[in-house]
Design goal:
Length: 319
Amino acid sequence: MDDEIKRDPKVFLMGEEVAQFDGSYKVSKGLYKKYGAGRIWDTPICEAGFSGLGVGAALFGLRPIIEFMTWNFAMQGIDQLINSCAKFCYMTGGDFSSCPIVFRGLNGPTAGAAAQHSQCFAAWYGSVPGLKVVAPWNCEDARGLLKTAIRDNSPVIFLESELMYSVEFEFDKSVMDPDFTLPIGKAKIERKGKDVTIVSYSKMVGTSLEAAATLSKKHKVDAEVINLRTIRPLDRKTILESVKKTSHIVSVEDGWPQSGIGAEISALMMEAGFDYLDAPHERITGADVPMPYSVPLEKAAVPDTQNVINGVLKALNKK
């Protein structure tokens, strides 16, 4: 955000506690002191209000970054996201051809936050025409995709994971270049393999890679792991090309099973990948329940490495 606010005077950040408090999770630390109240705006606790203000600013040429403390709170302003910015270009016949706005914040299961503050919204927003939906996993994803999202002329939903904020990654120094970007709509093969395709996004990419390492060591299974990076538009080509090679697919997500990202991938396999499959698609998802507050129940509700391993072995008909 710092790079883009410096690069483009039309970019500004707005949200609850993003300015003088440096952000609830310190993501905007130092930006208020550097750029002042004209570029970093603290707002009241009113998601509907500042979401609408951001959409209006974007429609008239500015490039707002709207931070939700968590995507659970965005439901208070969801009408602005879906019925305003996502549909405005279509409903005006292209008279408003762009709405360059980024909505970002915490998404997915977290720790000890219970049912109302711990859930994944990827499938919700991924179903909406007019939106682009991004879900980064590591530092390279987060930096490259956020910079692209801010420069994009369409509204972008940027889904971050609270549980990934404290995770450290190694990355090439080129990632820190001010002009480093990653394309929206393009997945990345994080691990090449020939026996099975594992498709995931956000925090579950790391879980999938851990499972792949164990599968290789203990079961002699060579798994290919795809990091979707983008939920909408979904990189169908990369998924299909991988399944052509492996003939097996397992999807991994921490959201609910019904109408989830894995369900969309299942539809893709039936519509375009059926002839490549040697076995049914296996879905690994979060439990089909509101997130429990109890620590052992919360742990049981979220996929872990063993769940992924079991799904892969089932897909391959191995015990």
